């Protein structure tokens, strides 16, 4: 008994079935390759899948991964039906390829043991230890930044003023439009929503206090820091990470240039200088938007808004809000620079560390802002 698969293409695979002593022998010939995958699938589907089956590959001229995969799939079908299947006659190269594909197929769906409570506790502990390690590294970078800053004070020639001015322009001046627009719109939204609620109680004038407390104490500097974290932490990571990929940081060390003094200090210091200024401008833009909406929606004139705003409490709120800016700046700058220094020699690592830097910077800003709020509440500010 014989079954064959033919094609006009001379290189097309052919499978001949013979039965010897109750065992099936499938003799393959031609090219078992991706080009003929449809022919192989149809031919192997028509072969028996029971009993003892031997697939003879001695006549195969070319075998690639797709062909090996198809043969192994047929062998699995025979084994799954309770039969016994094996390969014979394969050359050394073909046998090695089949073994490689078989190993890959086995490792593709490994049988994972059920996770026990101990495994989960171990994984949680490992995450905590890794997080503590990152926190320690970040604290170390803060120490290096402060140490190099003090050294630059006593050795002014080592300080890179040109780099500082450049980064002040990049992280401060170029961020001014988006920060101002965001704060202006936040002020508009606060005034509009506050007017809708306070009008029910005839307390429209208190919308000024709502805007002042919300913007000056919390939202102004917090949203500014989040915007800066998104655009600046990623920029720091990308620029320093690119230098790491091109081994420029190693070259700087070889030339006797301190990478912390040259790369990290100017960037972090630029943020420390510009973030409070951006926060002040955001406060002014937000108050302008709130005053405009209060005038349109509630009829509160700009003069009345200004008189209501000019109190000692609001000045204190502004001071409390802006006092957070240097801390936010150091956090954002250190996280961005640290992530950049962790980049390996490939683009995948650069993208991964850039996204991690943005997420970590925004997360730390929010956490530290919450800590500041609790602290100022406890001290009565």
Topology:
Blueprint: E1 14-20, E2 23-32, H1 37-45, E3 52-63, H2 65-80, E4 84-88, H3 92-108, H4 117-154, H5 161-173, H6 176-198, H7 207-245, H8 248-254, H9 259-298, H10 302-309, H11 312-323, H12 325-341, H13 347-379
Parallel strand pairs: 2-3, 3-4
Antiparallel strand pairs: 1-2
Helix pairs in contact: 1-2, 2-3, 4-9, 4-12, 5-9, 6-7, 6-9, 7-9, 7-11, 7-12, 7-13, 9-11, 9-12, 12-13
Enumerate the spans where pLDDT stays under 50 for 5 or more consecutive residues: 1-7
The H/E string reads EEHEHEHHHHHHHHHHH
The major sheet is characterized as:
4 strands, mixed
What general form does the structure show?
elongated
Oligomeric grouping of the chains: single chain
Main sheet: which strands, in order across? 1-2-3-4
Strand coverage percent: 5-15%
The overall pLDDT, averaged over residues, is: 85
**Distance N terminus to C terminus?**
96 Å
Number of helices: 13
Give me the count of strands: 4
Instruction: Please bin the fraction of helical residues.
Output: over 70%
Radius of gyration: 35 Å
Number of domains: 2
Structural class: alpha/beta
């Amino acid at each position: 008994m014989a079954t064959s698969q033919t094609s006009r293409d001379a290189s097309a695979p052919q499978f001949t079935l013979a039965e010897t002593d109750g065992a099936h022998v499938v003799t393959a010939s031609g090219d078992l390759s991706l080009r003929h995958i449809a022919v192989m699938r149809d031919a192997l589907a028509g072969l028996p899948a029971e009993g003892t089956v031997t697939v003879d590959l001695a006549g195969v001229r070319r075998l690639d991964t797709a062909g090996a995969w198809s043969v192994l799939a047929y062998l699995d079908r025979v084994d799954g039906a309770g039969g016994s299947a094996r390969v014979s006659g394969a050359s050394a190269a073909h046998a090695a390829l089949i073994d490689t594909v078989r190993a890959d197929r086995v490792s593709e769906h490994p049988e994972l043991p059920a996770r026990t409570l101990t495994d989960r506790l171990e994984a949680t502990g490992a995450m905590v230890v890794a997080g503590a390690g990152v926190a320690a590294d970040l604290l170390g970078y803060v120490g290096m930044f402060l140490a190099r800053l003090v050294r630059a004070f006593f050795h002014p020639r080592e300080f890179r003023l040109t780099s500082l001015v450049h980064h002040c322009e990049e992280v401060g001046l170029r961020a001014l439009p988006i920060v101002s627009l965001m704060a202006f719109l936040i002020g508009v939204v606060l005034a509009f929503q506050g007017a809708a609620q306070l009008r029910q109680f005839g307390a429209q004038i208190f919308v000024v206090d709502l805007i002042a407390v919300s913007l000056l104490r919390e939202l102004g500097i917090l949203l500014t820091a989040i915007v800066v974290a998104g655009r600046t932490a990623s920029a720091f990571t990308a620029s320093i990470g690119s230098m790491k990929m091109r081994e420029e940081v190693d070259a700087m060390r070889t030339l006797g240039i301190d990478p912390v003094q040259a790369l990290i200090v100017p960037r972090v210091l630029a943020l420390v200088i510009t973030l409070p200024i951006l926060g002040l401008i955001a406060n002014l833009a937000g108050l302008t938007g709130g005053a405009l909406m209060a005038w349109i929606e509630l009829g509160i004139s700009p003069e009345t808004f200004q008189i209501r705003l000019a109190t000692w409490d609001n000045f204190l709120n502004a001071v409390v809000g802006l006092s957070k800016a240097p801390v936010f700046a150091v956090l954002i700058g250190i996280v961005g620079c640290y992530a950049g220094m962790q980049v390996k020699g490939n683009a995948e690592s650069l993208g991964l560390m850039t996204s991690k830097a943005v997420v970590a910077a925004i997360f730390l800003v929010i956490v530290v802002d919450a800590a500041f709020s609790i602290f100022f509440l406890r001290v009565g500010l």
